Amino acid sequence: MNKSARIISTLLLALLLLPACTRKQAPTPAGGATDSGNRAANFGDIVPDGFTMDGWGADSELEMRGDGDGIGNGKFGDFTMVVGELPSVFFDFDSASISASERSKLQEAAAYLEANPGDHLLIEGHCDWYGTSEYNLALGDRRANSASDYLGTLGIDPARINTLSKGSLEAVSGLSKLESSQDRRAELIILKK
User: Fold this and answer.
1) Fewer Cβ close by (within 10 Å): the C or N end of the chain?
2) What is the fold of 71-192?
3) Average pLDDT of the residues of the chain
């Protein structure tokens, strides 16, 4: 009898506590009053809309970009971009190592830079569509830096080399690993004053 009473009391206690676990609290409306009488945050005041500088404050170090800044219209800063003069360096899948067969392309780029001391070089690292965009941006950066480092071993001043990762931004999605081999590259772009 004592055992039965414990089982019954445990079941009754569970039945009493179970409804308390299933109660849902109503959501707090944005900009409205909470149960305690405090106003909830108006998220429109602190989240930027992406179109204006509203909400960043007067002390912000962020500046609006001008139309002529950075890369665009065949320009990289003060330089004019010359694409296609130097061959691209290709990489194996998920690799930033420069194979022996691709080193001659970087040697050609080094010879060009030695013959044209006023020119600089932009190395764009590209990836195929496999992997996340964050991973591919990092891999594109490693590929561009690997090519830059190799040029440094050939005596090219690192101040004449700029690197940029494009990741998989320009990759063709849906291709097989073999078909997407053209997306795994470092493009060598001449920068002329």
Assistant:
1) N
2) 60s Ribosomal Protein L30; Chain: A; (3.30.1330)
3) 79
Specify burial of residue 181 (Cβ count, 10 A radius: 0-12, 13-18, 19+): middle
Helix, strand, or coil here: 190?
A: strand
Structural domain boundaries in the chain: 1-64, 71-192
Residues 84-124: tens digit of each pLDDT:
999 999 999 999 999 999 999 999 999 999 999 999 999 99
The three-class DSSP label of residue 63 is coil
CA distance 141 to 31: 43
Indicate the Cα dihedral angle 24, 30, 31, 36, nearest 10°.
20
